[in-house]
Amino acid sequence: MKSIFKNKKTVSFLASGRGSNFSATARKIFEKEINAKLGILICDKPDAKALSVAKEEFKMNSYFVDPKSYLSKSEHEEEMVRLLKEVKTDLVVTAGYMRILSPSFVKEFKNRIINIHPALLPSFPGLSAQKQALDYGVKITGCTSHFIDDGVDTGPIIMQSVIRIYDNDLLSDVSARILAEEHKILSESVKLFCEDKLRIVGRSVIIR
Predict the structure, then answer these.
(1) Catalytic one among 76, 117, 146, 183?
(2) Hey, which CATH number is domain 9-207, 3.40.50.720, 3.90.1750.10, 3.40.50.300, 3.40.50.170?
(3) Which of 124, 127, 136, 201 has its CA 20 to 30 A from that of 58?
(4) Is the peptide bond between 122 and the residue preceding it cis, with omega within 30 degrees of 0?
(5) Is the pTM here over 0.85, yes or no?
(6) For residue range 87-122, what is the model confidence (pLDDT) as tens digits?
């Protein structure tokens, strides 16, 4: 039987900060738990810890692409697209990337951008999702991996994981428990994509 793993996909990342989710997923590729190739990392912050993690731990090419150096958002994203296509990126993973991608960028990688969000979408989209959930008084929350579309946290959902919120929880407690689940479902979602096991039907993602 012909192997579905013959041609490894190239996975590249966008990040803005410490790169916890980037590191968790890249490590599984680096250690061959995910059958894929590491592409590049692009950051929009010069002091993003993810930049040094990419270089020192995974020997990846990483780039700080400064939004302030370009006359427009489109020019900034055009440079990102150029770098991603240069390494023949099959999948873009936004791991704590704090900028909204334009419809033109999303079109370049249609159904090939996976994001992780620290809430059970469609509840609590946007920034500070953990605090939104805690402030609202919900009893459970969690995280969601999803494909990116033209909206904000509105793309087809791949996987979700649930955590319980306890009466004495602090925001830091909730955030830490969510983050542990983010690491799991983001890397699993990337693995499934690289094994051609994800199919989008309308708003649903079918896992084969």
Answers:
(1) 117
(2) 3.40.50.170
(3) 127
(4) yes
(5) yes
(6) 999 999 999 999 999 999 999 999 999 999 999 999
